[in-house]
Automatic annotation (TrEMBL):
Keyword annotations of the record: Cytoplasm, Initiation factor, Protein biosynthesis
Known function: Component of the eukaryotic translation initiation factor 3 (eIF-3) complex, which is involved in protein synthesis of a specialized repertoire of mRNAs and, together with other initiation factors, stimulates binding of mRNA and methionyl-tRNAi to the 40S ribosome. The eIF-3 complex specifically targets and initiates translation of a subset of mRNAs involved in cell proliferation.
UniProt-recorded name of the protein: Eukaryotic translation initiation factor 3 subunit L
Disordered: region residues: 686-710
A Gene Ontology cellular-component term: eukaryotic 43S preinitiation complex
InterPro entries per UniProt: eIF3l (IPR019382)
Family of the protein in this entry: Belongs to the eIF-3 subunit L family.
Biological process, per Gene Ontology: formation of cytoplasmic translation initiation complex
Quaternary structure and interacting proteins, as annotated: Component of the eukaryotic translation initiation factor 3 (eIF-3) complex.
Lineage, broadest ranks: Eukaryota, Fungi, Dikarya, Basidiomycota, Agaricomycotina
Length: 710
């Protein structure tokens, strides 16, 4: 039932127009009298609320009826804590209405749709929190489909702060006189909670990138940025995420769950959560705390602190990634007590693998990338996978998959040839070569072309790094200096690039460039079991064989030894997954492949990553090569399946038909075999009974069709 109209819009327009015309004519007649001007301004200020109401009423009238019905039903579902309906409205109805009505425009403003929410059941606080949630969807749509201006950036930050403040610092119920905060009575689907955390970090990242471009700012934007230095600051974002983790006690919850594993009378996850905290007992806070840990991983990677990014994953990482190492034993309960959204799984593996790559732990990075790429391949076979109804989600996942494949190609090229980590998954390697075959070939050869290929893939696949601090917008002199600086010339006394992406690229290329001569050096070492440093220097073109200057020869030999030390250093790496032999204390955690997982994501042991080892005795190099046996299991399985398919095809094909006349079955020599006449007669009779007289039978492919005669 529609609400009665309190006034007529047409009458309001006429009254406002008459009032304004009368005041303006009076102002013109009496001249520029200050008193008359002040009186006119005061009257216009009194009319402004009416003008605002009129604008809101006109905007509400322009909202389609189906959108109005959706907003009312969405609000009612949240009031009733109807989680299935909320999930359908959020994951299906809202995207469909967006594509239908608001693909290129904004959704109605919260103030416009507020009159639709007034009912006897909803309190002011309930209406307010729904408007906060609606603003979250509103600004997310602006960021994804439109171009946000500075007001949108500031207001989205204020709305996020209001939402998290409501969740963290809501007062207790009216029956309780305590001033201590209490959990809120709110139910939201896991996908929405993840999108809240993910969008919060995304808007922070976009704002920092936009804020760092000083020369593109207008005068008004410079003034607003000078006044709002705390908007989207790194401290405020980190404070929100750490507060959600602390409030939910998610790390304590995971520790308690691991302690319950293996017990005969183990408590359920809900019982464990209730024993920890009232906040932990609610799925809302438990899920937000878990997603906040994954969000912290992403924020620390964006800020360039890869060690701290893995450190915050101490408990959650072991719980979620305990079986992500290829060949290691999986944690069977890791996907039951915590949310298992595909987006969180893919994002976590991407950022953890990138941290390992930047820390030069390439074996762990390759295992992490192989795990998530295998998951993505299985996901692509499931067209109607739960959680992928929204096209924007699937597009984002596909983009992350392609970037992950590029990172895998880089790590695969950085690991020395012959390493067992280059053969973890042949399917993934084949896919990487199809997609980035040219870059992988150049990266494997070394030299300047390799560095160009590394730079190309790094800039494509790396996260969008940000600066932790804002430019000095509150200092006019410093901003004027930045505006007058030439962007093509580096700042004086600053050899390090100011762009965070270029800074991390420079560090990565320095590490990759040190390995560029290693493929050539390794190819020569494979040819010998022992050789002198002088001969190796001549092979590497460091010195000529006929060189008579002893000092030059010694310098060349020293340079060759330095390159061999680089090869030795790159032949060993810290790995979280190690062979289980000799580790009796963790023998129960070993997988059938003989591997076991060590501790947290930062822990590990030094392992050999190459099949080539050497020692230097005086001026002689002794080389030992360990040949890795071929993995026959996959070859036998593949050929067994192929043989089974051929056998099934043979069994499903019709029998061959004798082409000769009855009684003239010939042997190999052309004569009729003894007793063959009666057999041929019986076979022909049976064939005539089973087959129609004129039916065509195929055997052996085209060109072998014959017709049976009656």
């Amino acid at each position: 039932m529609s609400r009665p109209t309190l006034w007529s819009t047409a009458d309001m327009d006429e009254d406002l127009a008459d009032a304004v015309d009368a005041e303006l004519s009076l102002y013109v007649q009496q001249g520029q009298n200050p008193a008359i001007y002040d009186q006119l301004g005061a009257q216009i200020e009194q009319l402004e609320p009416l003008l605002a109401i009129q604008q809101h009423m006109a905007a509400l009238a322009a909202v389609p009826d189906v959108v109005k019905s959706f907003i009312v039903s969405f609000h009612q579902a949240i009031l009733n804590r109807d989680l299935p309906s909320i999930t359908i409205f959020y994951t299906t109805t809202f995207p469909k209405l967006t594509d239908r009505f608001y693909s290129r425009t904004e959704w109605p403003e919260p103030e416009t749709i507020a009159p639709l929410l007034s009912s006897n059941e909803a309190t002011e606080d309930q209406i307010h929190i729904f408007l906060v949630l609606y603003r979250d969807l509103y600004y997310r749509h602006v960021y994804s489909r439109l171009h946000p201006n500075i007001d949108d950036r500031f207001h989205s930050y204020e709305n996020s702060c209001e939402l998290f403040n409501y969740l963290l610092n809501s007062p207790s119920s009216a029956d309780d006189n305590s001033d201590e905060p209490a959990p809120v009575d709110l139910v939201l689907p896991e996908q929405w909670l993840w999108d809240i955390i993910d969008e919060f970090i995304y808007q922070f990242q976009v704002f920092c990138s936009w804020r760092s471009k000083v020369k593109s700012k207008t005068g008004d934007e410079l003034m607003m940025l000078a006044d709002g230095t705390g908007v989207w600051s790194s401290y405020s974002v980190l404070n929100v995420l750490y507060s959600l983790i602390q409030k939910s006690k998610i790390n304590e919850f995971i520790v308690a769950l691991k302690e319950e594993q293996g017990k005969e009378s183990a408590r359920s996850a809900e019982e464990v959560a209730k024993s920890i905290s009232p906040y932990t007992a609610l799925p809302l806070y438990r899920t937000l705390g878990y997603f906040s840990v994954l969000g912290l991983l992403r924020v620390h990677v964006l800020l360039g602190d890869f060690t701290l990014a893995l450190k915050v994953m101490d408990q959650v990482g072991e719980f979620l990634l305990g079986g992500s190492g290829f060949g290691a034993k999986a944690n069977k309960s890791s996907f039951t007590a915590l949310p298992t959204l595909p987006a969180t799984h893919i994002s976590t593996h991407y950022y953890v693998g990138f941290c390992y790559m930047m820390l030069r732990r390439y074996p762990d990075a390759i295992r992490t990338f192989v795990t998530v790429l295998n998951f993505l391949q299985r996901m692509q076979r499931m067209r109607n996978y739960s959680g992928y109804e929204r096209k924007d989600q699937y597009d984002q996942i596909a983009k992350t998959a392609d970037r992950t494949l590029a990172l895998y190609a880089m790590c695969h090229s950085l690991v020395l040839p012959g390493s067992p980590f280059t053969r973890l998954d042949d399917n993934i390697t084949s896919t990487a070569k199809e997609r980035y075959g040219d870059q992988m070939g150049r990266m494997s050869k070394g030299g300047s072309d390799a560095l160009a290929a590394f730079e190309e893939l790094f800039l494509y696949a790396c996260p969008k790094f940000i600066n932790a601090n804002s430019p000095p917008y509150d200092d006019p002199d410093a901003i004027a200096l930045l505006l007058s600086a030439d962007p093509t010339e580096p700042a004086e006394g600053s050899p390090i690039p100011t762009d965070p992406t270029q800074r991390h690229l420079r560090l990565f290329l320095a590490s990759a460039g040190a390995q560029s001569p290693l493929p050539t050096l390794r190819s020569f070492l494979h040819l010998y079991t022992s050789l002198t440093t002088e001969k190796l220097s001549s092979f590497l073109d460091l010195v000529k064989v006929s060189e008579s200057d002893q000092e030059t020869v010694e310098e060349a030999e020293e340079e060759a030894i330095q390159e061999m030390m680089v090869l030795k250093q790159n032949s060993r790496s810290l790995s979280r997954i190690v062979p289980a032999q000799g580790r009796s204390e963790k023998g129960n955690d070993a997988s059938p492949a003989g591997l076991t997982v060590i501790g947290t994501l930062l822990e590990g042991e030094m392992i050999s990553t190459s099949d080539l080892n050497f020692v230097i005795d005086d001026n002689t190099i002794h080389i030992a090569e360990s040949t890795v046996g071929r993995r026959y299991a996959g070859w036998f399985i593949k050929n067994t399946e192929r043989s089974q398919r051929v056998l099934d095809e043979i069994r499903g094909s019709p029998l061959p038909v004798f082409k000769g006349k009855v009684g003239q079955k010939q042997g190999a020599s052309g004569t009729v075999a003894p007793g063959a006449e009666s057999v041929a007669i019986n076979d022909s009779a049976e064939a005539a009974q089973k087959k129609a007289p004129t039916k065509t039978v195929a055997w052996g492919g085209a060109g072998t069709r014959t017709t049976l005669d009656a």
